Amino acid sequence: MKRLFIDLEICCRCRECTAGCSYFYHPENKGVITLLELATRMEVCRKCEQAPCVKACPNEALEKQPDGTVKRYSMRCTGCETCTLACPFGAIYPEIVPYLTSQCDYCLGKSNGGEPECVKSCPQKAVQYVEVEESKEKDIHLIGEKLAVHAVPWRKE
After folding, report:
1. What's the maximum distance between 2 C-alpha atoms anywhere in the chain?
2. Nearest-CA neighbor of 11 among 115, 107, 127, 91?
3. Which of 92, 102, 114, 115 has the fewest CB atoms nearer than 10 Å to its CB?
4. What pTM was computed for the model?
5. In the structure, what pLDDT confidence band is assigned to residue 110 with cuts at 50, 70 and 90?
């Protein structure tokens, strides 16, 4: 099955992929940023027991989930980036914590079977649309049905 594949080991968060992602009538719609944020929270976040990012948020926009991941409520988030400063590991990148969030629709119905716009505009080739399956050995993880991420996940020893 073809999936949007993001290689966090290659991605430099330059945001070039968002150039093609924007819709003509809604230029701030950069859904791929939401995918980068989700992938980072799932794979790079240290899942701290005390979660300083959650405690630092002045708007209670972050919540630690039972599995240790942190969920961001975009309607509460003001984009102050206090969470990025509070994270002792630098695992919350300010470039991918947008004030205005958009949802990625994987360009369904727009690409006519071709590549999504973010894939076409990524200069690092960190975003691809390929056949990929989950592989713990290769550090490829599925997030939902349509997204795969290559990242070395942090694990507490």
Report:
1. 48
2. 127
3. 114
4. 0.74
5. low
